[in-house]
Amino acid sequence: MSIVGYARVSSVSQDLNLQCEQLTAAGCEKVFSEKQSGTSASDREQLQECISWLREGDTLVVTRLDRLARSGKDLHNIIDQLQSKKVGFRCLQQGAVDTTTSMGKLVLGILGAVAEFETDIRKERQREGIEKAKRRGVYKGRPASIDANKVQALKAAGMGASAIASELGIGRASVYRLL
Fold this sequence. Notes:
By secondary structure, the chain is of the alpha/beta class. The chain is 53% helix and 12% strand.
């Protein structure tokens, strides 16, 4: 029976050291870590590798629940995977989360819903901030990655959409959107 840790931060500029130290101090013999957004579990290679590595009787430990999942759906899918492998789950900062007890399962569900709520609120605030900046004329959005003039020039030169897409290394749909 192994105690295995999983650490995650959302961006490359963030530091994993504190989480890794906490997991090691909690007795984790192996720690999987990555710098990847937590919005989807399917995009996180180290999480998938960690789940594959775990064996019956092992325990997965994270520092905080939001390090494992940001949506209730992902959280429940991950926990289901762990339970099907007969792997326990513990959360250091939310000590009541222990999937081997009924109370722990209840607390896990509640905290999962709270984590998803926090993500939704953060996205809402971000959208509101962008809209406010747009009204002030400060926010212009991301610069175009495709030169529309170049697409028009190639079209005027007699090239078809497929040829333009191939020439510029973009999708045909992008060419049609610009035309």
